[in-house]
Amino acid sequence: MTGAERFLAGCRREDVDATPVWFMRQSGGSLPGYRKLRERHDVMHIARTPELSAEVTLEAADRLGTDGAVLFADVMLAAQAMGVELELAPTGPVIARPIRSATDVLGLRTIDAEADLGFVAEAIRLTRAGIGPRAAVIGIAGGPFTVAAYLIEGGPSRDQLVAKRLMFGSPQVWFALVDRIADATVEYVRSQVSAGAQAVQLFDSWAGSLAPLDYDTFVAPWARRILKAIRAAGVPAIHFAASGAALLERLAKDADVVGVDAGQSLRTARERLPACAVQGNLDPARLAGGPRAVTAGVERVLEEAGNAVGHVFNTGHAVPRDTDPGILAGIVDLVHERTTRAPTELATVNGPAPVRRR
Amino acid sequence: MTGAERFLAGCRREDVDATPVWFMRQSGGSLPGYRKLRERHDVMHIARTPELSAEVTLEAADRLGTDGAVLFADVMLAAQAMGVELELAPTGPVIARPIRSATDVLGLRTIDAEADLGFVAEAIRLTRAGIGPRAAVIGIAGGPFTVAAYLIEGGPSRDQLVAKRLMFGSPQVWFALVDRIADATVEYVRSQVSAGAQAVQLFDSWAGSLAPLDYDTFVAPWARRILKAIRAAGVPAIHFAASGAALLERLAKDADVVGVDAGQSLRTARERLPACAVQGNLDPARLAGGPRAVTAGVERVLEEAGNAVGHVFNTGHAVPRDTDPGILAGIVDLVHERTTRAPTELATVNGPAPVRRR
Questions:
Q1: How many domains does chain B have?
Q2: Which residue of A91, A164, A217, A299 to mutate against B (max B Cβ within 10 Å)?
Q3: Is the CB of B285 less than 8 angstroms away from the CB of A167?
Q4: How does pLDDT run across B200-226, given as a tens digit for each residue?
Q5: Which residue of B has its CA nearest to A206?
Q6: Is B354 part of a structural domain of the chain?
Q7: For residue range A202-215, what is the model confidence (pLDDT) as tens digits?
Q8: Which domain holds residue A99?
Q9: Order of strands across the sheet that contains A257-259
Q10: Is residue B345 in a domain?
């Protein structure tokens, strides 16, 4: 199987010749080409320049040998297209004028994905052409809670207290805001798929701070609208929230793959989501813990994932920017090697579950 | 029942005349006496001066009418007694010389609770004398992961990456460090109970970022040693971790009460912990969301808690410092009113579960 086939089969819970692998935030970080580019350009410039974004995305997938090539982009690009002025500080996006009122929400523009975010589509086209079948091109978008929380807080925050206060205290403003965000994000993910994205991951990184019933009221309808748009465009929808253990079944609605963070048991996640693929969940802190910590972590993920179809190997959170690319490349090889299935096993489509060759 | 009786019965899963209430970080914040003290003293000075710490603790319990009076103290006091130089910045403790090596660990002192932390014991004695039976005095201590992570990181962090890298990469240094922390914390909690603390909460706020199997290896043995010491001293042990949904059963081992954060369903937590009391889990963001958000939040917590014994009402995370004390006092009244049980119901010890009067 090609990398792209392997990744897509993993997402669709079909048989694979080995477990597909990619890493959240694999593009960028410590790769030599990226570091060189960063000497001359800021992150937003790279993300908004198709040739540079594609170059960085391709460098990562080719150097690391991953089955997915996740686009170098920022979760706030759609918000930027809505007219929000933002800067990317080292800790995350900083918003010049946070959204705090109905008037602020009304000031947000309806996006025209082609005109406003055409550079992302072009980056995807270039990446797709460059990577060929070696890896699937994965688009990304920010989830409704995370994008709304950034817009209200004005930047990263530990507990999203300002955003949640507005959500609980002025629900009509909140609903109007997530509605605008969802509209824009639907256009955005459609344009990504039209341009050639073979899957899209919705990063609702902060949604795990919500009580499940509040998630149902304040986030789920808009998240599901976006996930449905991804699937309607014909590609798998991947849904991720950090600290998402209490939300797993909710995240799985209208998603093909649920990203499982490192603070959970992947085994438990598999049991709770029997009809959905799972992605994860190596603790990124292990990447700098030396070879034994890495190997033990990879082995545990594979053991907890088990032999059933529908596991995509990934880290449980974004890869730290100072990670040695050699470690990541080694993990790709290790996962592929440990999970290789013989052709005869693959052929037994309706037979017993494929057995992992050790 | 007195407030102290109500709180202790709640912790011990005995019948109560109403659900007991307290709030994490209820002491301090926006109370007038505390604000006045803060004009002249920093937080650490108040925490280390028995008369001031007791004054602030008493002010909160009396003004708010809570059934628990949680000591105004910092989770890093025991570490400070081990010789660690630290300052309390607005975002949390900042360590002058972070612990990063075996030599650093060896440099930590063995504590003498009486000599090094006698001011905490004295604050507890004063609080106990001042509050009488109106509320139970609750001691606090930092959990092994959280204290170790602070010491290694050198301050607050979003993902504890530096600490976890050391944990995975140099496990022997980690084990030596948490062993020292546990030794000191055992002495510390014993001295708190000797002085009159009627329960102790172990705050392992950050432990939820660990995979359950890593929690078992790197934290659980030391947490359980501390919890056992609290119980052996004769009072209930309360165990709290934020984002703890994947760890609930683990947190319940050797604990009487598990603190449930706001990102979980309290109903699910009750189902998973049939033999343990639960505490929580109002989302603190609701406190500034207006009366409807508060009332709806309280009602949901009470409904999810159900009528079975063993629920202590609390927020799911620490109360924000700018919270209006009137809101908190109103919640105490509301919870007591909504959960009042008639004396005849209380008398039916082995009969059907008490029915809440609406």
A1: 1
A2: A164
A3: yes
A4: 999 999 999 999 999 999 999 999 999
A5: B263
A6: no
A7: 999 999 999 999 99
A8: 3-339
A9: A68-70, A136-142, A199-203, A237-240, A257-259, A277-282, A311-315
A10: no
